[in-house]
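Folds abound. A case:
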Amino acid sequence: MDCLREIRGKQAHDPMFMEKMNTTSSWRCICVPGPLIVGAGPSGLATAACLKEKGVPSVVLERSKCIASLWQLKTYDRLRLHLPKQFCELPLVGFPADFPTYPTKQQFVDYLEEYARKFDIEPRFNETVSRAEYDSALGFWRVKSIGIKGEETEYVCRWLVVATGENAEAVVPEMEGKGMEVCLDLCNHNARPSLVVRDTVHVLPQVMLGRSTFGLSMWLLKWLPIRFVDRLLLIVSWFMLGDTTRFGLERPRLGPLELKNLSGKTPVLDVGTLANIKSGDIKVCPSIKRLKQYAVEFVNGKTDSFDAIILATGYKSNVPSWLKEREMFSEKDGYPRRPFPNGWKGENGIYAVGFTKRGLLGTSMDAKRIAEDIERYWKCEAKHRTAFTRSALLQQSSP
């Protein structure tokens, strides 16, 4: 049976569905034959492109007005990719040859927009998913979205791809009274910034021994255990940067790569900030205890006045706020419960992309796996539809 006919047939016997159809004029239901992808960032685009290459259509929902909204609307202008471009490419299409090793923010956005055009990916913008839940009676996912004018839409699909990623919602720390590169920007424009460091942090040179630090690490990991590579990175960092503890930047007990694997906490690749910290142009401060009217009190008891406070405290997953599913995703942090490389697939046709804690490289790996998996189901259903159609035609033609 055609999946769309199956959905509509079951909906006709769903009292809640029929009640909503009769009472809500601004509500509509859309049956999606292929997968529904939530999020039009790099993760969603990569998955849609891989599916498109395999002949599987998809629908992409995006709460903002553009693709890669975090990059386009929430980042500072001087931002560059921290890793060499070869580690940040999406599947099937590389960066232009004339792009530098570390593309700028605008170059990366241009790359993503061209990527979407190449694969004819046209997300449905300004649709915020408010709820997604598997309907066991229907055998499909029901995904509800709200438009900018409050209009409601329910999408019904067999496969749901969660591509909202690790950075969907801003982290606002609890402070009574309510980024290192940002500090460098302020310093370069004659400001007097102070950097609040609340936790231990690994600061590494962006380039080591003539190679990118990340590229060197990946090369060494082919032959050496992770702890040995971590020791080598820290030794070289000490010779190049000195003892960062002297400047208020204490290192974690675990090495940078091991810490990244276990917690997702990324080491800071220094692009000039440390030199300004050493010279005193950037002041390092401990955690904030409370905010006052025109001043900040720190946990060490000291107080200082500031013209502005910039929260460079990062982002987090927002999956628990809208996905009503507790088997695949953790309610605590919004990440798949199963660690990489096994967190990309759940039960009942749900998938996750962009939650590997391994950047765009991990995103590409998951996007390929998801497309390959859905393709198998898609082809299987196509065979059943073809067989059903042939059988019906034979019955009609027989005397």
Q: What stands out?
A: The CA atoms of residues 225 and 258 lie 10 Å apart. The first strand starts at residue 27 and ends at 32. The longest helix spans residues 359-397. The radius of gyration is 25 Å.
